[in-house]
Amino acid sequence: MEIYQLRQFAAVAKTENMTRAAQSLSMAQPAVSKTIRNLESELGAELFERTGKGLRRTEQGDILLRYARAILNAELDARREIEESLHRAGGLCICALSCVERLSDILAGFAAEYGNADFRIGSTPEGSDLLLDSAVSRDEVPAGAEVLFDEEICIAVPDGHRFADCGAVSLTELADDPFIALSGSESFQQVSEHIFRSAGIAMHAAIECDSLALQSRLLSCGMGIALAAAGEWRQLCEEGSVHLLHIRDAECRRYIYVQQLSRFETHSMRAFRAFLRRYFSEIG
């Protein structure tokens, strides 16, 4: 008795029709019929009764189906475990389109808890195992992705700005202020454009920079204002050099999510996703 025979038998048992079973297996119907006849001959028992409506399993067919399912599931588990062992040897590739500034803390925290891991940081989702990204609403989060955290997007203004002590402001009130845009993150650019569109005004960047660190330094020096994820700017606010203001006239949240990109979820991927849940729950 061979695995391929059990696979074809299980397909026939599921469909109770030789033709539909052959179609599901992308095989010719005579080949599947021959496999079933050979199995019946080998076992010395009929596995199906032929009826006017198709096929019906015999008692012996029910017995074989129970074992066939167990064997086929075991074969699938063996393939998955072997694939995982091969995949683990190649490390874990993460594409971070959001939360880039937090990534070093995330990786260090994971290493402290699970030991050093072979991480690769991908620049694009293609070829990566996990994607860390954000969306402007829950409806925009891809199917199958897991939302880890949502945070408010505020306007960051330097100490001494005319609105620094107001607590909240409309984007229209800031239309003439120089805006410092973060050009190094396509994901945050999309969030920024969404916020300005929902306020009904165009975004005009006076300065573009490719890192959050440079953006925050420019802002602290009074070079302009910026959109800021509340969690990432918390330390600057505590130092008093920057003030975060709620935005009155726009939808201003982003939803950070993790999405599995590779076909098979390895042990390392499960552990990393579990760590991400804990990490973001602690900063919430």
TrEMBL record:
PROSITE patterns, A to Z: HTH_LYSR
InterPro entries, alphabetized: LysR_HTH_N (IPR000847), LysR_subst-bd (IPR005119), WH-like_DNA-bd_sf (IPR036388), WH_DNA-bd_sf (IPR036390)
Keyword Transcription regulation: yes
Keyword DNA-binding on entry: yes
CDD domains assigned: PBP2_LTTR_substrate
Keywords for the protein's UniProt record, in alphabetical order: DNA-binding, Transcription, Transcription regulation
UniProt domain HTH lysR-type: residue ranges: 1-58
Alphabetical list of SUPFAM superfamilies matching this protein: Periplasmic binding protein-like II, Winged helix' DNA-binding domain
Gene3D superfamilies, A to Z: 3.40.190.290, Winged helix-like DNA-binding domain superfamily/Winged helix DNA-binding domain (1.10.10.10)
Pfam family, one: LysR_substrate
Family the UniProt entry places it in: Belongs to the LysR transcriptional regulatory family.
Protein name: LysR family transcriptional regulator
Lineage, uppermost ranks: Bacteria, Bacillati, Bacillota, Clostridia, Eubacteriales
